[in-house]
Every structure is written in structure tokens, then in C-alpha cells.
Amino acid sequence: MKKLNIASIPGDGVGHEVVPSGEQVLKTIADIHGGLAFEFTSFPWSCNYYLEHGSMMPENGLDQLKPFDAIFLGAVGDLNLVPDHISLWGLLIKIRREFEQSINMRPAKLLKGVTSPLANPKDFDLLVVRENSEGEYSSIGGKIHQGEDEVAIQNAVFSRKATERAMRFAFELAGKRRQHVTSATKSNGIVYSMPFWDDVFKEVSTDYPSIQTDSQHIDALAAFFVTQPERFDVIVASNLFGDILTDVGAAIMGSIGIAPAANINVNGKYPSMFEPVHGSAPDIVGKGLANPIGQIWTAKMMLDHFGEIELGAKLLDVIEETTTAGIMTADIGGKHSTEEVTNEIIHRLKSL
Ligand code: NAI
Ligand code: MG
Predict the structure, then answer these.
(1) Is residue 195 classed exposed, middle or buried when 0-12, 13-18 and 19+ CB atoms within 10 A define those classes?
(2) Which pLDDT belongs to residue 352?
(3) For atom 10 of ligand 1, which residue has the closest CA?
(4) 105 contacts 96 by C-beta, under 8 angstroms
(5) Which atom of ligand 1 is nearest to the CA of 281?
(6) What's domain 116-253's superfamily in CATH?
(7) What pTM was estimated for this model as a whole?
(8) Which residues does ligand 1 sit against, CB inside 6 Å?
(9) In terms of C-beta density within 10 A (0-12 exposed, 13-18 middle, 19 or more buried), how is residue 209 classed?
(10) pLDDT for the residue 260
(11) Ligand 1 site-directed mutation target among 132, 256, 287, most atoms within 8 Å of CB
(12) Would you say domain 1-102+258-352 falls under CATH 3.40.50.300?
């Protein structure tokens, strides 16, 4: 019996509506599999927790999470209770940083039955591998002078170690997919870090002779996500470029409510974290309108992470069967509730 201990953090808002959906689906899958079991331990860390305790998680929160096999997170943030920079940095970003989740992985795929905002979306199925620990998002820099003399300097950090790590991760994934990696660059405008990025990409690619490669400037690449998303397989990008690309990826899928993500700890020292792309969606909270597919697809990424590739593929098939049957929430044009969509997915899994 393979037993997986999962730390579950619903967080705020619709996190409490979609995390239970994801847990139920994973439990159903474990039952079908027979040799697999999930045990969820729920942590109440959230903005409400902050109001009571003055912090988003206890001081030893990370120690509590460390022994788990993975973290399954909903969403963090409730502007009515706590400013975003406190809530997100006190929980979500703290886990990503301290647990060295140096890779952020976000697939974007045209789900059958879901209407993309693209007029002619073709059958795209791409995966962005984003460097998640450095790059443009560094706290190195500073400000000097006031008023019209004011100057702000923000440094981007590109280490060989982190750059290579993200690229190798992308090549390994491409080897299991359609054998193609695109590098997001901007070496025509950014004259130190991006030529360095290109050099490392060339070096790493020589270790993967069977994988096709190309390099695209980020501006053109973002445009191609809209005009020809079907041409991409795996894309490797720096922190900022990947952040922007993945939002475009979520947009062309049809709703942020279906977009999944994984924050991967590559060195195996800490658990990885699986969370949908969307936030706490305060505008629809408590109404049964939250799309559970982002969280459930995130659960599929967790299955892949644990080597349960076949089960993960089955789950994605069932998600698409459900959308094809028109069982969908309002954000993707349906009229069903969170619970109805979840139950339909569970029902279909059980009848596999
Ligand atoms: P959001 O993603 O919560 O909502 C943006 C829009 O998408 C809203 O119209 C919402 O109703 C819709 N939406 C989101 N999830 C949905 C779902 N599952 N089904 C259907 N529709 C869905 O982003 P927003 O409004 O900018 O942020 C709200 C709060 O969430 C803020 O406190 C923000 O900081 C936080 N946030 C947290 C994230 C995280 O935990 N990873 C990511 C993004 C935002
Ligand atoms: Mg973003």
C-alpha cells in the first residue's frame, strides 16, 4: 500500500469550496486504484487565522508541514481582513521560498467542451516551466533621493545553478511529451542576463539530443500564445516571463477557474505544493459558483508527481468528459454548481 500524507490548506474564500472537491476526487481515485491511499491533514491557516493569532501560520508552521509528502493548497487572500502583501507573503510565498520550490509548472490545454476566447484555438496543449526562485523577482536593489531626483534600482539575478535546474526540468518533461522545448528569451534587449540564459540553454540542450529546441523573444512568444498556441510543447521561462506567459495560458483556456499549477521542490528536501492558479475569488464566494476543475486538475498534477501517470491521465480524461457533457460552472458557460461538477467527476471515475 502506497500511503501519501497530504497537508491540506484551504486558505481563504473559494479555497474552502474547491479544496474539498480535490480531496474527494483523490480519495475516489485511491479507492479505484486499491494500492494507494491519501490521508489529508487540514491546516486552518488563512486571513481568519491571522485575525485570531496575528500571523498567517504558527511560528513552527513550516516545521509542521515538512514531514508531509505534498501540500494541497486552495487560495490565500482576503482584502477585507488582511492586506495582500501580508497574507500572501506570510503563507503562500513563504512556503514557496522556504521549501525551495524552485520550479513552477503550469499547463495550458484546450479542454474539450470548453470555449476558448480564441476564435480558432486549434488543439493546443502546452506546459510552461517557470524558474520560481530568482530572476527578475529578487529583493536586490534600492532607492535613493527624493522628488525629481528619485531613483529606483531593481536587480535581476540569474545563477547558473537555478537557470540550468529549470532548463533540465523542462527537457526531462519534454522527453515524456512531444519532445520540444522553447526557451523564452529577450537577448536582443537585455544584454547580460538573457544572453547568459541563451548560453545555458544551448549547453543544456546538448545533453538532450533527441529533443527539438527553439528560442523566442518573450514579446513574440506572448503573441504566439494567442495566434498559434498549438505550436508549443514545453516552454522554459524566467520568473517574470513565466508569470506573464502562464496568465496568457490560463486566459486562452477559457477561465482562470480551470488553470492548475505546481510548485516543485526539485532537491527532495521539502514537500512540493499543488495549488490552482486562481485566487480566493471574493466576488463569488459562498454561492456554489466556484469552478472546482482548477483544483482537481492540480490534483492530477500531484498524481503525476507521485508517479501515478496513468491515473493522472484518466482523471484528465474524466474532467474533459464532464465538460464535454456540459456539466460546467458559470465561468465556462455552464449552469452547474461546484458540488454538481465535483459529483459528476467522481461518478464518472467510479464507473471507469
Ligand atoms: P481571483 O483569481 O480570486 O479572481 C479573479 C476572477 O476570477 C474573479 O472574477 C473570480 O470570480 C474568478 N475566479 C477565480 N477563481 C474562480 C473559480 N474557481 N471559479 C470561477 N471563477 C473564478 O483574483 P483576484 O480577485 O485578483 O484576487 C482575490 C484574492 O485572491 C486577493 O486577495 C488576491 O491577492 C488573492 N490571490 C491569491 C492567489 C493564490 O493564492 N495563489 C492567486 C491570485 C490572487
Ligand atoms: Mg501571475
Answers:
(1) middle
(2) 84
(3) 281
(4) no
(5) 3
(6) Isopropylmalate Dehydrogenase (3.40.718.10)
(7) 0.94
(8) 14, 18, 75-79, 84, 88, 92, 256-257, 275, 278-284, 290-291, 294, 329, 331
(9) exposed
(10) 97
(11) 256
(12) no
Q: Report domain extents, the chain.
A: 1-102+258-352, 116-253
pLDDT, residue 185, reads 98
Distance between Cα 166 and ligand 2 center (Å): 18
Instruction: Report residue 109 as a C-alpha cell.
Output: 490545454
pLDDT (0 to 100) of residue 307: 94
pLDDT mean for each 10 residues of the chain (352 residues): 96 98 97 91 98 97 98 97 95 94 96 94 95 92 97 97 97 97 97 98 98 98 97 97 95 96 96 96 97 98 95 96 98 97 97 87
Kindly identify the ligand whose nearest atom is closest to the C-alpha of 106. 2
Q: Which ligand is nearest to the CA of 88?
A: 1
Instruction: For 271-284, give the DSSP string.
Output: -EEE--SS---TTT
